[in-house]
Structure formats: structure tokens, C-alpha cells
Amino acid sequence: MSRRALPVPFLVLGMGILLCALNGCGTVDKAIHRPNLVCLAPDLSRIFINDSQRGRVLIADRRFRYLSEIAMPVGSSIWGIAVSPAGELAVTNGRQTSVAFSEAEQEEGNIAEICFYTLDGRETHRLAWRGEKRLLHTPGPIRFLSDGTFVVADYELNTIVRLDRSGKVLVKFGEFGHGEGQLYYPNDLAVASDGSLLVCETYNFRLSRFTPDGTFLGHLGGKGREEGRFMFPQGLCFDAAGNLYVTELSTMRVSVFGPDGSFRQAIQPLQQGFKADCLQMFGVAWASDTGDLLVADSINECLHVIASDGRWVRAVTALE
């Protein structure tokens, strides 16, 4: 007796049953899976966490209570989230839109995009570039300047691009290298109180400072495990006093520098009661209401909460 193919409705129903069995039907997964980025709304009403394993951006209130989430397309690779002065969330994303059988097909199917959302997660605007000659190849960290324009780092091209909301390129600078003004894997950005731009160069083991128009101003750090130097720096943020916080992958610490660039202290959760074999700290954000730091630890699937004096407080593994 020949076998007949199941009608499409039955296949869809079967797939739905399978997904329900795996993920639960009608339930919300509030656990944090492989977070790599975190940021806060200027009014502190929202915390945004990139849940990289589940392909979503979690939206929580200041008490880590689940509010909603933004589901990203399959194949997304998100390495940049930021909130504008006007209160709009921006997410950078690089994704493959089709199955590729050659390098040319792969390039044609690659899309680099910057998506804009309300603080509740409703998409309002999108910039996208496609193909081999697209403006951005691997869009990474994004930061807004005071005039509403923004800068995006491309860690494959080793460039920084400044754009307005329409996608017009205002400034583009950077190239691969180890010298002054050159970049190697720009993995995060931070805007100082004077408007200058700090670029975290993971594989140059340093931070480079530029004006918003791309003029090089100087370096901070350099390769080393001693205090004041870096081993694979990852994330950056400033507090209101101008202190700078830098997460490091190899040393598993957060290094703190004063407004003048002098080293202040090293924060190491593994030496303060957090139980784990290792840490994988990427994104970091400063909360102005309490002075706490929020640090995304991907391998331990949590956010570390660190008090203003450097004390590790707790690890948040799931939203309420």
C-alpha cells in the first residue's frame, strides 16, 4: 500500500504540537539565555536585554519584572542596542535571509539593518543595506549623540559610521591597523560628557578616543593583566561623574577609571561570592537612580548587579 503525503494543515498542526511540547503553549519564557547586551531607558522605566540564544530583546521594568519582548528574525546577530535622547530604542542586526550555495549568494543574502522601536517594543522605522557593497557588513555597537544622530561600529570593516535617522552618512572613519586612529575589532562605544567618542578595540587591547567627526584624540590602556591595562576588553559605559567602566573577557573583571583616565579599582564577582567556573561579561550599563552597574554575563546566563562601591550584589537569571 502506497503512503500518502499528509495534507499541509496536518503538517502545520503537527509542527505546532511539537513546538508546544518543546516550549510550552501560552507561556512566557522569563529566563535570560546567553545575554550579551543591556541598556536602560533615560527615564529608567525600562531595561532592555538582548537574549541572544532566543533571538529576542527582553523588556523589563526597573525591578526586573517582565513587560514584553521583541522577537527578531531567524538568523539575527544583534550586537548593538541603545536608547535615543528622544526615547526610541535602536537595535543593530546582521542576518542572512536565504540559503547560500556560494560566497556570492551569501553576500547577496546578507542584510545589515538598524531597527527602531518604541520603548514598548513597537517597530517605528528601519534602515537596511543589502549585498556585497552594503554600507555596514557586521553592524555592532550603536550610540546616540546629543543632537539625535548616532554612531555605529562595524567590527568586520573596522570602521565607525555616523548617520542621521534617514540613513544619511555624515561621517565615516577608521581602518584596520594598530596605529593611531586605526582600529581592530571595535566591540563597543561610549559617549563621554564632553561629546567625545570612546571606542573599545578588543584585539588592540585598548580604548581609542575620537571627536564625533573622527579626529583621533588618544588611547587608554594597552595589552596586559595588570591594573589599568586590558585583556580583551568588551563593554563600556560612563556614570554621571565621568567614571568609566570596562568589562574584560580574559581577566573576568570590570575595570574602573576616573574622569582623568586614572585607574580606580577592579571589580571581580568571582572573588565576591558569585559561584561559577568562569565569567563571560560583555555589555554593561549604569543605573543613575541607584548607581548600580548591570553587567551581561553570557556564559552564566545572568545580569550581575554591582553596587556603586564595587560590591557584587546578586545575579539576575530570570525576570519576575
From TrEMBL:
NHL repeats lie at residues 172-213, 220-260. GO terms for molecular function: ubiquitin protein ligase activity; zinc ion binding. One of its GO terms (biological process) is proteasome-mediated ubiquitin-dependent protein catabolic process. InterPro entries: 6-blade_b-propeller_TolB-like, NHL_repeat, TRIM-NHL_E3_ligases. Keywords: Repeat. PANTHER family: E3 UBIQUITIN-PROTEIN LIGASE NHLRC1-RELATED, PROTEIN LIN-41. This is NHL repeat domain protein. It comes from Candidatus Ozemobacter sibiricus. The lineage of its organism: Bacteria, Candidatus Ozemobacteria, Candidatus Ozemobacterales, Candidatus Ozemobacteraceae, Candidatus Ozemobacter.
